[in-house]
Amino acid sequence: MPHELQDLHTVDEKSFPYIFEQNASVSLKTSEGTVRCNVYRPKSAHVEKFPVLVTYGPYGKDIHYKDFHPKSFSEVNPDHHSAHSAWETPDPGFWTQHGYVVVRADERGLGQSPGLLDTMSRGTSEAFFDVVEWAAEQSWSSGKVGLLGISYYAGSQWRVAARKPKGLACIIPWEGMSDYYRDRCRHGGILSNKFINFWWNRQVITNQYGKPGRQAANWGPDTIEGDLSVEERELNCQDQTIDTANSRFRDEEYYASKEYDMADIAVPLLSVGNWGGILLHLRGNIEGFVHAGSEFKYLRMITGRHDLPFYYAEEVELQRSFLDAFLKGEDRLGWSIKGKLPTVDLVLRKGDVGFNDAEREKMYERRTENEWPIARTVYAKFYLTPSQTLESSEPSVPGPQKLSYRALGSLDRPEFLLFTTPTFEQETEITGHIVAHLNVSLSPHAAGPTPSDIDLFLTLRHISPAGNEVFYTGTAGDAVPLTKGWLRVSLRKTNPQHPKHREYLPWRDYFSTDVQPVIPGDVYAVDVEVWPTNVVVEKGGKLVFEVASGDTQGSGIFQHDGPNDRPEEKFADTRQKPYICTTCSKGFSRVNLLCASDGSSKRRRDVRAGRVIQACESCAQNHLRCEHERSWNRCRKKDIECQVPTTADVPGESSGSLDLIDNATQEPTPIDDSMLPDHFRSHPPLESGLSGTTTPRGLMDFSFNWDVDLNDMDMGSLSWYNYHAPFGAEAPSTNTQGVLQQIASEPNGNGVSMRHEAFKISVWQYLPQSNRNFEAAEQPNLAFEDAEMEKNHHRSQLTARTAIQERL
């Protein structure tokens, strides 16, 4: 049974440079219940009134920043270290010194606030509304309230501001999504489950009201009224990991209850977005700025990590000048004077300064504009060609052409096509929105079940004049490309009549009534929204456009691999399972499923995507095993006639392919690759016996009839080609002594080299630590490890893989 609420409100006027009130109670008006908050006031608040900065959220008003994220806190500007610093919120030590009261409230059902835990819900906005009005009415308040915070504490600002609580005078949503469905939960209709699961299980449910053991875990104090049972806590919780997975469309109650009209926002706002936030907040900051109804609204773009820039001295001074203007009437820069300041302040990403390097990112110049999108924007078209280039002029072709790749790719087994521009002949800035017009189809295997949908994952990458991919700082300091976009093809329907629909930004309702069939063999024209971006491509640089069937490099913890959202029977045939258990020989289509099966083994086994390593018939009869890379050499060494076995397809495996339809032709090109094993190099090019087109490295695709008699040698060759490193990367390899080698980039080709460190944290990063720890595989990024620790971490992974390859 829930315990009777107690009043443990305390006031400490001596221990800190400010007055500290803990567990002040706010009785809710718009709904039942009580919210508890901490109040930090200047010591002169007994005789003066001050404007108030309010935050309302799930991370615990009493959990200190150093306990929530120790590494991050150690890097925060020391001016914002105090006894009550908290994750992603304004520091009371700093702001009370500058004439502000800080109110930090625990969201209902979390910390010390009883009630139903239902994050980002209508109830969240209603209770936040009441806390804002309560703060404006207190004796120490000037009656004016501002909102300031990062991420969750930013995203909630849009919704409560649209409700227009009394006293709310301005907001600064710092890297905060404004569209719950499109920005956070379902990118193009595809569930972004990995981050939601991580976020919920680490940062939310661990702080639930009534959860025992919090104080012992250094996760804030235990609940004042005592612990609640597991059953009671479950009844008081709407699990976001379940709700987001079970609800798929915006007209379902779960998502519909979170809708609001951005035009209802009337208070002055400063929206701060990060060009590197390409999987969570970037879109929302820009769209919130564009569609808010405020007379005074400003957009500022930054770079860097998600956690630190908020506390940089120059950024804090900008925050303070804006807040002073609308909360104190002290307008030093002209924020409150119409037309005095440009409304848009951009940072221009020119040059390769590396990633997660704040000092080097200061080299980026800033420029102001008067609107977004920039009025003088020239929208340029680039055309995809069968030779996998991006051309500025429409190619002249005799008829439709097709490029194919396998369905249901993932970060650990990416499946994609790459299209590369010629080198830019002059410096070119790209700033704004991108839309991709694609013709796509689905080609199933005749023997398997028929797939019924396609997920498109698009990425735009930047190649420097030196031929290296340029990576930018992502949310957690990880390496990310320029931008990404997504679409579930069954939700391809757009609504051109909607007032927010633009040619450069198609509007989709994502309603259940919008679902359209995807029939194998039919070609569908789709418009895919790619999130806005900025880059200055220097003379000699290139762009690479990537079309994939799953997450690729740069996705980090924001992956889309929910088994119920992307089931194999819906998105791919079930035919060839490339991950083989070394214990039971059972095949699996995904490496995480394999690891779960093999997890009971005392030592972790590395798995190579591709054919099963086995002996030919002759080797088996002589109790030998064929070599791994040079498959039949042992037969020759023992003077045994090699008898290659034929294998039948394994039922229940994914091998469907996705097709991009173009209207140009291309002659097949021979293969010349130094990494090709001797045995395969002795054979004629694979394209010589097959029709179709080629990939950027001259590799064959899968646009042919699968009903052919392929033996293990054939499948091994195809597998090696298909999983070869992208961009001619400096992929780690081994010689006979097991020494790591680096492959030089291809001269005079479309392939470009990827820096070794970036390659490691992109392709080689996903190595689960145990059979039950897959979702934690990317957590080193969110824990903000320092660069040297991260390098050592990935180096150890590569060494382990090298040793395993040599043992094979």
Automatic annotation (TrEMBL):
Q: Write out the entry's keywords from A to Z.
A: Hydrolase
Report if keyword Disulfide bond is assigned: no
Has the keyword Membrane been applied to this entry? no
Residue ranges of domain Xaa-Pro dipeptidyl-peptidase C-terminal in the record: 320-581
Q: Which Pfam families match?
A: Peptidase_S15, PepX_C
Instruction: Kindly list the GO molecular function terms attached to this UniProt entry.
Output: dipeptidyl-peptidase activity
Which residues, if any, are the signal sequence?
none
Q: List the protein's name.
A: Alpha/beta-hydrolase
